[in-house]
Design goal:
53 residues; 2 strands; 2 helices; 43% helix
Amino acid sequence: MRKITLTCPDGEETYSLVWFENENHAEIDGVVDQILAILNQYNDQQFQQAVVV
């Protein structure tokens, strides 16, 4: 389980709990690696962070 917290410009925080089965962990990591590889093609850190958010 992961807790994801987003903070709005006005300081308000929103969070969500994300649950995933442990046996899917390796597959999820693989997909995340693919997404990060695509984002690394863009030399704009702010753009990369915006896509992740």
